[in-house]
Amino acid sequence: MATGGDDLKAKFTTFADFGKNDKTKTGRMDSKQATKMLKEANIIDGKKYTSNAFDITFTKAIADRQKKSDPNYPKGVKTINFDGFADLLDLIAGETKKNSADLKAAVQGLAGPKTEGTTVCAIRLFLWGTK
To answer: How does DSSP classify residue 32?
Structure first.
């Protein structure tokens, strides 16, 4: 049976690799993917904690890892690995005055990335200047 940390890591990997092919899967998450994950977990609600505040926190989490001279975070990197994600949740907990364990439980409760609202449009090819 998976432990809580293993389940959190599995959810992280699922969202980090969502929409990528086998060549581009890195096991790292950028701000867009993390925002999607936290919106689905209702951590980013748009009122008490916004996506703009999250972007600042995301950048702060990367900068904190770079200050610790983590070799996984060279200068200019814009993605986080699982350890950085755990630190990110701790930073969010401090900013929102919520318990870090509650945030981790909310992420663990996710089923996976949702694709609701994604529709395929029937678009006909139209070439300008032709009759």
So the answer is: H
What does pLDDT average to over the chain? 85
The answer to whether the CB of 61 falls within 8 A of the CB of 84 is yes
The structure tokens listed for 81 are 């690995």
Closest Cα to residue 13, out of 28, 23, 2? 28
**Lookup: tokens for 17:** 């690799």
Q: What is the pLDDT of residues 48-82, one digit of tens each?
A: 999 999 999 999 999 999 999 889 889 999 999 99
User: How many other CB atoms are there within 10 angstroms of residue 8's CB atom?
Assistant: 19
Greatest Cα pair distance in the chain = 64
As a whole number of angstroms, the distance between CA 82 and CA 5 comes to 10
Dist CA 128 CA 43 (whole Å): 46
